[in-house]
Every structure is written in structure tokens, then in C-alpha cells.
Amino acid sequence: MRLQSLFGVDDEGPLAELWFSGHPQFPSMLSSDGDTIDAATAIRRAPEFMISRTIADRWGDELPFLFKVISARKPLSLQVHPSQENAQEGFKKENSSHIDISDPRRSFKDAVAKHEMVVALEPFSASVGFMPIRQQIRALGAIGHPLARSMAALLSDESAGSRQERIYSAFRLAVSSASTMSAGITAAISEALSREGSEGDRSQPPSSAVLSALRHAQDAAQSFPDDPSTLCIAMMNPVELEQGGSVFIPAGTVHVYLRGTGAEIMTNSDNVLRAGMTPKHKDISGFMENLNCIPSPPIDPASGLLKLVFQADIVTYRPPLDEFMVAYGHVDPKSGATGRWWTVSDRLRRTQAKFSQAVGPQHVVASRRRPRVIVALDGVVRCRSNSHSIDLHQGEAVFIPASEPSVTVSGAVEEPGSYILATTAV
């Protein structure tokens, strides 16, 4: 899925993301009755009307979330985001160093922690957080390259410190290695995957996670040949999402988006610390200072921390914070008469019902006293309140202020459509 086609953008070059934002760096433009104003200014002028007094008192006169639609045709950068304390310290430090806010060398664009969640709009591949250390050792040990073997040795040496300390050392070795040490990494990863994935009589066959981690590392290495940071992917949890699948990524969690299109929502922050797989500025020391090295599974619905709430035509995703939540919905005038479930909702209720709960009418997710952003993904989506109605065609979006009464979302034509709604959890 190309963003150019989805949003009607006339740009043949790469387009990785589109923002729906009140962030001061790149605020979206709001148009009403012929007047145009950027979202950040509109909120500052009338915070109670736009976002509610409750939200303004808690997070200030700004939208507490930043919403994007992202699309990766090749892996994006190896990155991590800062905690609140580290964001404040980093922002202050870069300001004191007189690094302009638009300088590409800048890592901290604001003083806000960055937590984020992705909802897949098509099959979506990522690597998120660290696998159990034994799986890391198995994956790296299979790669016949001196750097990979050194990383595996650091992980295996229990006298070298705790698990977190050993993971930190192995990761740092990869991202700080000189290019003179990296020749042959891509070939070595491919050979390891071929060897580990081949059938044979083995007393200790690799786990599916190890094989998937090697596949992800191979994908990254093919896009960034002989980049030593691609070896870090062999340490990380592989994540494969079907349409409607989701994962929450707290600050400090290393991650790479490898392939696919998704709705990404985050706290209102543009702070990114990169360590590899990018032509952009890398801040390896800042990255390592913010890296959480505790192995843990991804935070998805199975973790119990990312809640799903769904009905026949809508799925709501509620991560463990208040700044944001997302609803992924489907409109089809025919489904109401037949009682058919949308394929995404139906699959989720069958595969993840124990992590979910049912809710009432779909307008609940667009209730009053919250700022809301609705983006039409296909078809024609009608958003209607007691006093207003607007039809959104594919790629169009609307901002609904907190002062607007409850909004219902329905189909505007006979053909089905779909949409994403971003809002707060309070």
C-alpha cells in the first residue's frame, strides 16, 4: 500500500509517513468555513473548545497525541525513544548547546516522552525489544561472521555481568563497530538463515523465533548491505502482524519497522534516537543511554497490557496510558441487515477473544469531551453529529473538537469503506 495512492499525493519519491498533528514542528492545517489555521495555533487559542479543559489541565494547551499513517517498503531505522526524564534532560542539553530545532543533528525536538502503538492496515513486519538471551545467542552464534561471534561470546559470558549488561555490551559492539569490521555481514546472515532453516537431523533445532529473527536480519541486511547494526535485529523479537494486528512500544524499547503500512499513534513527541540502518543523523551515545536492555515479549493483546474492545464493525485499541487510543472501523450499509462481521473484527474475536471485550454502539468511541481525528482509508465515510455532517473520501481527514457532541460514523454510499479514529483515553 503506497501512501501516494492512499492520500492522492503527487510525489513519485519515497514517502514514509503522513502526519495528523498538533505538534509545533509540523502541525496539520485545519480548514473551516473558508478559513485555514494550523492545529497547534487553533488549540492554543481555544483549548477548552478544541481539546477540553480536562486534557488542557493535564497535558497543557496541545493535542496529547501525534497520529501518523506510515508505510515501509524497506526497513526504517534502528531506533529508540526517550523516557520523560531523559526527554527533558536531552531537550535542555541540546538547547544549551544552541543546536537549532530544525538541525538534522538534533535528537530531541521536545521535552516529551515518546510511547507509540502501531495498528497494521496490511501485513506488517517489525522487530521490537529483546528476545530471551538464549535465543539471541543461538541466532548470533549461527552467523559465521567475526562480529556476530564476538556478540554471541559477550552474551554467553555470565562473568561479564547481568543479562542486561551483557545485552548492552553486545548491542553497543554492533552499533559502534567500524565499517572495516563489517564486510561480509550480509552474506553471513543469509548463509545462517539457509543453514538453520534447512531440514536435517539436529538434536537442537532452532525455535521459530530464532528463524524469524534471522529472516528479519536478512531483510535489513539486504537493504543496508554490511551495516553492522543489522546484526542487532538477530537479538530482537520478530513481530508479524496481520491486518488489524497491533503492538505497543514504550519509551526505551528498541524497534525497527521492516515492511508494511500501519496507523501509528504516539504521545505528542518527535524525539527519535537512531543507531543504525539510516542515512540520517545517528546518536549512538544517546541511543544507548535510553535503551531498555531487559528481554521481554512484545506488548500486544496477548500480553494483557494492550486491550482490544470490539464489535462487528469496529475494533478499539487501548494501550496502558491515557494520552491516546485508536479505533479501526468498517462501514457497510449491507452488513447491518445481514448481521455479518467485518473480516478484521471476526478474525480478532476468534483468535484473541480472551484478550478482548464487547462494547455497545460504535458512536461510543467518538464520544464528546475528547479531541478526535478520523481518517478515511477507503470508500466514503460519513461523520455526523447533531449539528454537522461531513463525508470523507479516501485519504481525507477531519478533526472533531472536544466540544462537539457524540459523533456517529457510517457509510455514505452503497460500497463499503474503512477508517481510523484517533483520540484520547480520557
UniProtKB/TrEMBL annotation:
<feature type="active site">
    <location>
        <position position="274"/>
    </location>
</feature>
<keyword id="KW-0862">Zinc</keyword>
<keyword id="KW-0413">Isomerase</keyword>
<dbReference type="InterPro" id="IPR014710">
    <property type="entry name" value="RmlC-like_jellyroll"/>
</dbReference>
<dbReference type="GO" id="GO:0008270">
    <property type="term" value="F:zinc ion binding"/>
</dbReference>
<comment type="similarity">
    <text>Belongs to the mannose-6-phosphate isomerase type 1 family.</text>
</comment>
<dbReference type="GO" id="GO:0004476">
    <property type="term" value="F:mannose-6-phosphate isomerase activity"/>
</dbReference>
<feature type="binding site">
    <location>
        <position position="255"/>
    </location>
    <ligand>
        <name>Zn(2+)</name>
    </ligand>
</feature>
<feature type="binding site">
    <location>
        <position position="81"/>
    </location>
    <ligand>
        <name>Zn(2+)</name>
    </ligand>
</feature>
<protein>
    <recommendedName>
        <fullName>mannose-6-phosphate isomerase</fullName>
        <ecNumber>5.3.1.8</ecNumber>
    </recommendedName>
</protein>
<feature type="region of interest" description="Disordered">
    <location>
        <begin position="81"/>
        <end position="102"/>
    </location>
</feature>
<dbReference type="Pfam" id="PF20511">
    <property type="entry name" value="PMI_typeI_cat"/>
</dbReference>
<dbReference type="GO" id="GO:0009298">
    <property type="term" value="P:GDP-mannose biosynthetic process"/>
</dbReference>
<dbReference type="InterPro" id="IPR011051">
    <property type="entry name" value="RmlC_Cupin_sf"/>
</dbReference>
<feature type="compositionally biased region" description="Basic and acidic residues">
    <location>
        <begin position="90"/>
        <end position="102"/>
    </location>
</feature>
<keyword id="KW-0479">Metal-binding</keyword>
<feature type="binding site">
    <location>
        <position position="116"/>
    </location>
    <ligand>
        <name>Zn(2+)</name>
    </ligand>
</feature>
<dbReference type="InterPro" id="IPR016305">
    <property type="entry name" value="Mannose-6-P_Isomerase"/>
</dbReference>
<dbReference type="InterPro" id="IPR046457">
    <property type="entry name" value="PMI_typeI_cat"/>
</dbReference>
<feature type="domain" description="Phosphomannose isomerase type I catalytic">
    <location>
        <begin position="9"/>
        <end position="132"/>
    </location>
</feature>
<dbReference type="GO" id="GO:0005829">
    <property type="term" value="C:cytosol"/>
</dbReference>
<dbReference type="GO" id="GO:0005975">
    <property type="term" value="P:carbohydrate metabolic process"/>
</dbReference>
<feature type="binding site">
    <location>
        <position position="79"/>
    </location>
    <ligand>
        <name>Zn(2+)</name>
    </ligand>
</feature>
<dbReference type="InterPro" id="IPR001250">
    <property type="entry name" value="Man6P_Isoase-1"/>
</dbReference>
